[in-house]
Amino acid sequence: xxxxxxxxxxxxxxxxxxxxxxxxxxxxxxxxxxxxxxxxxxxxxxxxxxxxxxxxxxxxxxxxxxxxxxxxxxxxxxxxxxxxxxxxxxxxxxxxxxxxxxxxxxxxxxxxxxxxxxxxxxxxxxxxxxxxxxxxxxxxxxxxxxxxxxxxxxxxxxxxxxxxxxxxxxxxxxxxxxxxxxxxxxxxxxxxxxxxxxxxxxxxxxxxxxxxx
Length: 213
Known about the structure:
Layout (H helix, E strand, L loop, with lengths): L3 H15 L10 H10 L5 H14 L3 H6 L2 H7 L6 H18 L8 H4 L7 H10 L10 H9 L8 H11 L5 H14 L18 H9 L1
Helix pairs in contact: 1-11, 2-3, 2-8, 5-6, 9-10, 9-11
């Protein structure tokens, strides 16, 4: 079996050939943070809808902080868990205004102090708002990294720490977006398209399936 460093180079080469990094027009740290909180446990299209409605009505941090709770709930309902999420974004907005002078922090340590912000959310803010090297591990990155044999972990946070040890830092910023596209398109949670996958021959998950036949 191909060694990990060579496997990583092959994975990045294939993913770069399949997908282009998506350009996220709105890199405002506050909006990236709120969007990522809304994205938890829901689909991208639901997140997009909720984010658009929210910021069309309440475009600024202060607007969100002062908005009535029931109004926020209606605006972000499509994101699911809307009562919890609306409460969190309102609380986060207040904390940023009161404790951070309205500025979203750009370090993992400070971001993790905010309610509703875990490592994945914090890493998304670091990568997509501040373009700082980090590895956001969502369900796609966690699943794909385990299937490909890069890691052997059951928890996303453990996957992140293991990936940081083996993935060259030059790949960190692009890794999440490329793997998310790959996970939505080919390496799906149910019904992965093995016949279309350019990484099938170096995929532990697929090789195990072949060996069981």
